[in-house]
Amino acid sequence: MYYNSEDxxxxxxxxxxxxxNCLSGFKPAHLIGTADKLGHTNLAIFTNIVHIGAxxxxxxxxxxxxxxxxxTYKNIKATGIFTIxxxxxxxxxxxxxxSARFAKGxxxxxxxxxxxxxxxxxKAPFVLESKIKFGLQFVQEVPIKINNSILVIGQIEHITVDxxxxxxxGIIDLSVVKDICTSGLTxxxxxxxxxxxxxxxxxxxxxxKIEK
Length: 212
Hints:
Order of helices and strands: HHEEEEEHEHHEEEEEE
CATH architecture: Roll
CATH superfamily: Electron Transport, Fmn-binding Protein, Chain A
Helix content: 10-25%
Structural class: alpha+beta
Number of strands: 12
Shape: globular
Number of domains: 1
Distance between the termini: 24 Å
């Protein structure tokens, strides 16, 4: 099927949203945990987490146009901290339903049967069930003017990784903890490790063989 720009513009709204959301391929599934100044917790699934850099250690996510329901963003702006928690096969259904619209002050942790975890004096909630999670300090937001979205950037201050998944070189084997990835807004897939290669160098290319 081929679509030109006019075809895309005239597509059914729901069909177009699904099509465009799937075009970028598999995306990671994460739960962002926050709390407001009164300590009311919030949890929401995000599929647009992006690595910004390792030194300093920066992770970002895209916040859609801010509305009354943007509890995650508003909590981050109010407190300056948030957590990002990987989603695993064991609780993918719970994670999915955090995308429902709950009223402010109603915790998705409670309604979606996930467990709040607080580490040290960090006031944003982690997900106890998640085996890979990190806490961040908000450092910058970058407006994306073309659609009124915002790239929210945080600096990592706390990291928890399951020992079984952490390799000696610092690589995390996501298949060990049965990480989940997504395509579109409602489809979830398991992540299986295919292979691992050495750092690529132009003078040490393998003898490529393409299977037909």
